[in-house]
Input
Amino acid sequence: MRLLVVEDDADLNRQLTEALTEAGYVVDRAFDGEEGHFLGDTEPYDAVVLDLGLPKLDGLSVLERWRRDGRKMPVLILTARDRWSDKVAGIDAGADDYVAKPFHMEEVLARVRALVRRAAGHASNEIECGPVRLDLRAGRVTVDGHPIKLTSHEYRLLAYLMHHKGKVISRTELTEHLYDQDFDRDSNTVEVFVGRLRKKLGGEPIETIRGLGYRMGDPVEDRG
Output
């Protein structure tokens, strides 16, 4: 899962990035509203942590522009403002949730987890696909109840496939959502990690759809 943190305070930006990275996300960073708006408008993020009090372009304007342009990624706003009207304005502008400063990092992590899983249609922190179970809160994967040790890249790949279980996910989409903006998009690492996951998970939990990509779980029914 790929996130964007837009926060002008360098120390807080670093703390958020480190905590989210440790939790299994890949994180891009921005330090002002203009840079944040550009990244959010051009890169596919699974969620954004957005400060309202930003230089060059305030967070509320950034959010309004994203929503006006049809950007639908979940957004968690951060605000040091105590006035309830600022929180209401953020929600009305298109924010999905908010945290007031100062905050506990565990709360931010919990709210980000909730936004990402809800966007994918999951109500629980535990996602199951056959014998494979992913515990988002603990960052733990089990197969038939037995814990499986994964590298950070393997975990990110599995988490994305399980969040979107039943859907065919292209190699391009996986690359865009699993690696930051500086990653070499021409590499074949996705195929390598899929192969490693298959060996660790056993059986064939990850299906290759020739010419299209990969899928975990039964196909999603076309309700259209």
Observations:
- The mean pLDDT is 90.
- The helical segments are 10-22, 33-42, 59-68, 84-92, 105-119, 152-163, 171-178, 189-201.
- The chain has two domains: 2-119, 126-216.
